[in-house]
Amino acid sequence: MYFSEALGAWIATRYADVDRVLTDHVTFSSDELRYSAQEIPHRDNPVLSSLVATDPPRHHELRRIVSQVFTPRAVANVDIETTVRGLLDRVGDEADVVDGIAYPMSVTTIAGLLGVPADPDFIRWTEAITSFAGVFTEDDTRKAEFHRARAEMTDYFRAELARPRGSDIIGTLARSGLGGDELVDFCSLLLINGHETTKTLLVNAVMSLYGGDRRTAGRSGPPAGRDRRGPPVPPAGRRHRPVHHRVNHVRRA
User: Fold this and answer.
1) Segment Disordered: which positions (predicted)?
2) In Å, how far are 121, 186, 187, 194 from 153, measured between CA atoms?
C-alpha cells in the first residue's frame, strides 16, 4: 500500500489489501457521491448512482435485477456471429479494428440486447460521459460535452421507456420495480458499460493474437511460422483487461 502524490490517493496492489478494500464495506465504500474526499463536478453522472457505485444491500438488489434481465434466452436472441461476419465482409483485407469492427460490433450487440436500434450517437455519448467520470478538475469543454450527452441520452431512454415494450431488456427492467431517474440511469449504464468494455476486450484479444507486442501488433502480420488464422483465442480478459483499476472511498479512519 502506498500513497500516490500524482493521484492524491492510496494505491492497493497486494492481494490481501485489495481483498479487504473490496470486501470490507464498513471501512470502504464504492459510493463516490457520499464518500469522495474531493469535490465532484459531475454529480449527475449516471455511473455514480449505478450498480458499480453502490454498496450492499442496494448493490445486491441491483445485481439481482441484472441477473433477471441478462438471461440465456435474451443473449441467444442476438445474432452476434452474423453481425461480425457482415463487418468483416465490409472492411476487406485491411481494417481499423477499433472503428471498423470492435465499436460497431459491440454497439450493435448491446442495442440488440436492450431492444433498441443501434444509434450512431451511442459512441459519442459514451465517450463524453466516460471521459468526464473520475475528473476532479473543472474542464469547461469536457463539462459541456458531458452535459449535452447526458441530456440527449436521458431523453432517448425516456422516449424508449414510454413506448410499449416486449420481452427485451428495457421492457424487463421497466417491470422490475425500478422507476423514474433510477431506471433511466440503469439503462444508460447498461449501454455505456455494455459496449465500451466489450470494444476494449475485443481489441486486446486481436492484439494478443499478434503475439501480445502492442508496439508492432498489426503492422507486420502474424508471427513467422503461424497460420494466418492465428492461435486459439487467448484469455484476453485476464491478461489484458479492459478495466485496470477501481476506486473505493474511505468511510472511517
Assistant:
1) 213-253
2) 9, 12, 9, 15
- CB of 156 within 8 A of CB of 72? no
H helix intervals, 92-179: 103-114, 121-132, 140-162, 169-174
**Pair 103, 123: CB distance under 8 Å:** yes
**Model confidence, pTM:** 0.74
C-alpha cell at 170: 428495457
pLDDT bracket for residue 151 (50, 70, 90): very high
For domain 2-250, the CATH architecture is: Orthogonal Bundle (1.10)
The pLDDT tens digits of the residues spanning 62-88 come to 888 888 888 888 888 888 899 999 998
Inter-residue contact 27 to 252 (CB < 8 Å): yes
* 195-247 pLDDT per residue, tens: 888 888 888 888 877 765 544 444 445 555 545 555 445 565 566 677 777 88
**Rounded to an integer, what distance in angstroms lies between the CA atom of residue 76 and that of residue 81?**
11
Cα angle value 102/109/206 (rounded, 5°):
25
